[in-house]
Amino acid sequence: MDNKNIDQKPTNFGINRPKETIQKNTLSEFLPQLENYQPTIPDAVTCYYMNGSGLNSSDPRIVRLISIAAQKFISDVANDALQYCKTKSSAAPATNKNQKDKDGKVIKDKKYVLTVDDLAPALNENYGIKVTQMKYLT
Predict the structure, then answer these.
(1) Distance CA 89, CA 16 (A)
(2) d(Cα 27, Cα 34) in Å, to the nearest integer?
(3) Distance between terminal CA atoms of the chain?
(4) Of 23, 57, 64, 116, which is most buried by a Cβ count within 10 Å?
(5) Could you say which DSSP state residue 100 is in?
(6) Which of 61, 77, 63 is nearest to 114 (CA)?
(7) Is pLDDT of 98 > 90?
(8) Interatomic CA distance for residues 15 and 8, integer angstroms
(9) Strand, helix or coil at 106?
């Protein structure tokens, strides 16, 4: 083996990362926008859970930033669970492809229901969160 390859630092694998000064400018532009943005999760709910976990912040931008991060996490988990549900339903044999509603019209879009059976594998495989169902619910 050649010693040159061992001493070299790893490359960035072709990923162009912006310089640190550009990141500071972007963050300084982003933070004022949070003052006018109303996230899906209300500030009061975010503050309640922040205070419960020992994080006290009087800056509303920090509260909204955490709200946006929580909203993104919930959205990602729900999307992953939907993919599990679609995979499970497509693997199941279709007994009646042209399902009809009570008025006799053909249903075009299938509606999915979020269940623990879809949520548990999505949380476990993608985020390392183990969900167990209570025995009396099974």
Answers:
(1) 40
(2) 11
(3) 58
(4) 64
(5) B
(6) 77
(7) no
(8) 18
(9) strand
HSE, CB side, 13 Å, CA atoms: give it for residue 89: 15
Mean pLDDT of 23-31: 72
Structure tokens at 7: 């001493």
Q: Are 66 and 59 in contact (CB under 8 A)?
A: no
User: Please, what's the largest Cα pairwise distance for the chain?
Assistant: 76
The length of the chain in residues reads: 138
Q: What is the pLDDT of residue 48?
A: 94
Instruction: Compute CA distances 85 → 74, 81, 122, whole Å.
Output: 16, 6, 10
Pure H helices in the chain: 3-7, 20-34, 43-52, 60-91, 116-127
Name the band, by pLDDT with cuts 50, 70 and 90, for residue 5. Answer: very low
